[in-house]
Amino acid sequence: MVARLTTAVAAVAVLLGAEAQPVAAQAQADTPAPVTRAPIDYATARLERRLEAARASGAISLDGALDEPSWSRAPLANRFIQNDPREGTPATFDTDVRVLYDDNALYFGVYARDDEPSRITVNDIKKDFNTGNSDGFRIILDTFHDERNGYQFATNPAGAKWDSQMSNEERENNSDWDGIWDVATRITETGWYAEIRIPFRTLKFTPADLQTWGVNFERKIRRLNEDSYWSPLPRIYDLNRVSLAGTVEGLRGVRPGRNIRIKPYAATTSNTVRGLSTQGDVDAGIDVKYGVTTGLVWDFTVNTDFSQAEADEQQVNLTRFSLFFPEKRDFFLENSGIFQFGQGGNQGQGGGQNQNASGDMRIFFSRRIGLSAAGEAIPILAGTRLTGRQGRYSVGVLNIQQREQGAVPGTNFAALRLRRDILANSDIGAIVLNKEQFGPHYNRLAGVDANFRFGFLNVDGFVTKTFSPDAALSGRRGNDVGARTSYSFSSPGWQLQSSFSAIGERFNDEMGFVRRQGVNYLDGNYGPRLRFARFAKWMRQTRPHWEVDVFTRQSDGTLDSRYQGFHWNVNFQDGSNLEVGKNTSVEDLRAPFTINNSRGIRVNAGRHEFGEWFYFYNMSNARRVSVYTRASTGVFYDGYRRSYAAGPSLRLNENLNASVSVQINDVDLSSGSFVTKLLTTRVNYNFNTKMFFNALVQYNSDNAQWTSNLRFNIIHRPLSDFFLVYNERRDERTGQMLTRALIAKMTYLVAF
Question: What pLDDT is stored for residue 36 in this prediction?
Fold first, then answer.
């Protein structure tokens, strides 16, 4: 089937005018007119990108003016090179970057040239803004110069801030990391300026007197959908590819800070349940962060509080399995990449939206800590975490004590993750998880993994085993092993991925997320990346691809479920995209399951073969008004389903963003009919780069409830916040208020 698909794609490419050419040459096929240029040797081009940092001769005032004498004497980095849309050609508008330093901080002076500054796009100024929707400038610093890890800092012409920690060269990118740094910007008639100050205490690096770091810069021009880099990168990579970064040299006599941060909080809460007020709560706690070495950080938390975290976005479940909700709590998000275990797995793409196909198996899933199965908070007494790097090793140690609440006994959660770098860009590692409840119950897991990268090819695998009392697994047969092996090949011309997983019937990972046990799971995603010179004015890339997921039962080898998706995706030059296709499914149900709780409608046991046709279109988010739409129709189990989704978004300016999303499923089965409606409304108003208001209002017809999550946030000093949060649940049928909470919380960071 893969051979037939490849042959068909090649035939279509010839008809449309794609040139038959090697992959390296095909990467240039998007150029509107022939451009004569020598091909870039990316492995050696980086060696020419060397920038000397100059010591500032006087104080630097952070005002975006770059008018201090030190700036004019600092060496210049420019001649940025596009990697999209015209790989290897000079940037449409060049960027000048200079680097200064003093005893306390590193400074970047940026001049982003632009002949049409009135067309500069700025969509947002909130903290950790979406860097893909605005003009912007981004830095990566490989402070250990190991060509694997780095810190990233980004800003846009309005001075918004975004930062992250990147590990293992883009395998983990933790944008929830927060560093202490500052920026000032201004827009002029010839472009825009940014002046960035990053204190050395924000970074970790070796104690050597003379420092050489990896560095690269990204410039984004949103209206052209153009990305360019100082140290050039192939189109399939972005700034995370730190092994292709240039260097900043000459940093002498600088030292990282003692890296001690103390962050106490105080919070007060008023709750109302079904119209009855409860006594207000006053609470306090503290987080402490200590830099044990230049690479290891030890965190302590007492009476941990997550009341300011955003509410989950609701989902409609039309499957027999539990849904996945992402982690949103800051303590668990920071350094979460250290605990990531195993790679691979087909997550689907674009508008396919196939819930049944996803074979997510997360060995460590932090939402198991401090949250019930229904997502309700369970108090945490205290915890500690040691994370970071020491030489060629990455280390993660976590221990959290959860309080007793109702029927849930006090529980201790522990995780140990160790990983060692090998070869040029590969690693091997191990993980141990332990869950202990007061009483006889425990749950443990041990596993090893290996992740190899060879150019365009990644090969990964892991094996784990769980240990639980027999009573917890009564009635189950089979083994208690979970394993996966996978590969992915991503080149300018092709994207191929496949994995095979085996999950034993007795595999019981209570600190992870596993949708089903006792199955073998094969998934794949295969397709070319095509660019056509004749369509380059409006089409950037098209990707026909085939997705497949097959689950078989380990007990007898019979089919449990199968999904196939035949999709055609088109990315347009303005950033919008279109996808059409057909999804087919087979579900062999050994027992019926309830698909709609409110009406008690069930799907009957037996073999069900069904499918849908769909289309999905998403306008460019850089527009002031954009819309996404999706529609599908087809057979569904033993009946029929029509599904619709649409959502307009408004960007009045960088201060106000609003969006509405509506999803409707009209389902008709032999056991009954029902319609689900899900409404999600977001309103974000940014007063400035330090004061924000966010509203999330949702309606779900499955439980006939309206939910509201309103948050007001002031950053009153670096990494110190005041939050005012209002949460409410209301019954749609009666209008009765079910729960209401008003929360005020203050944090105050003291850093040394």
Answer: 43
* C-alpha to C-alpha distances, 722 to 84, 280, 331, 455, 710, nearest whole angstrom: 40, 19, 17, 46, 14
Q: Residue 608, Cβ neighbours under 10 Å: how many?
A: 18
Work out the burial of residue 205: count CB atoms within 10 Å of its CB; fewer than 13 is exposed, 13-18 middle, 19 or more buried: buried
Q: Which helix (H) or strand (E) holds 4?
A: helix 2-16
Per-residue model confidence (pLDDT) at position 407: 77
pTM of the model: 0.86
User: pLDDT at position 330, please?
Assistant: 80
pLDDT below 70 — which residues of the chain?
A: 1-38, 258, 275-280, 343-360, 439, 471-475
* β-bridge pairing 81-84 and 161-167: unpaired
Map residue 369 onto helix, strand or coil.
Answer: coil
The whole-angstrom separation of Cα 524 and Cα 499 is 7
The SS3 of residue 39 is coil
Q: Which amino acid is at 191?
A: G
SS3 string of 657-719? EEEEEEEEEEEEECCEEEEEEEEEEEEEEEEECCEEEEEEEEEECCCCEEEEEEEEEEEEECC
CB-based contact 272:745 (threshold 8 Å): no
CA distance 159 to 133: 14
Residue type, 563: Y
- 518, 478 contact by CB (below 8 A): yes
Do the Cβ atoms of 193 and 171 come closer than 8 Å? no
Q: Which domains can be identified in the chain, with CATH numbers?
A: 41-252 (2.60.40.1190), 261-313+702-752 (2.40.128), 591-685 (no CATH)
How far is Cα 161 from Cα 179, in angstroms, rounded to an integer?
10
Residue 90 bridge partners (DSSP): 81
Whether omega for the bond prior to residue 85 falls within 30 degrees of 0, making it cis, is yes
Q: Are 321 and 515 in contact (CB under 8 A)?
A: yes
Beta pairing partners, 421: 427
* 514 neighbors 507 (Cβ within 8 angstroms): yes
Radius of gyration in angstroms for the set of CA atoms belonging to the chain, rounded to a whole number: 27
Q: Are 443 and 392 in contact (CB under 8 A)?
A: no
Beta carbons of 527 and 545 less than 8 angstroms apart: yes
The residues, ordered by sequence, that sit 6+ positions from 710 with a Cβ below 8 Å of its Cβ are 693, 694, 695, 696, 725, 726, 727
Distance, CA of 698 to CA of 719 (rounded, Å):
30
- State how beta strands 246-252 and 50-52 pair: parallel
Q: How far is CA 33 from CA 28, 39, 389, 454, in A?
A: 11, 16, 48, 33
Res 342: pLDDT: 74
**Amino acid 353: pLDDT:** 58
Sheet with 95-101: list strands edge to edge: 54-55, 95-101, 105-113, 191-199, 182-188
| pLDDT tens, position by position, 588-605 | 999 999 998 888 899 999
CA 65 to chain centre: 34
- Backbone phi, psi, residue 10, to 5°: -60, -40
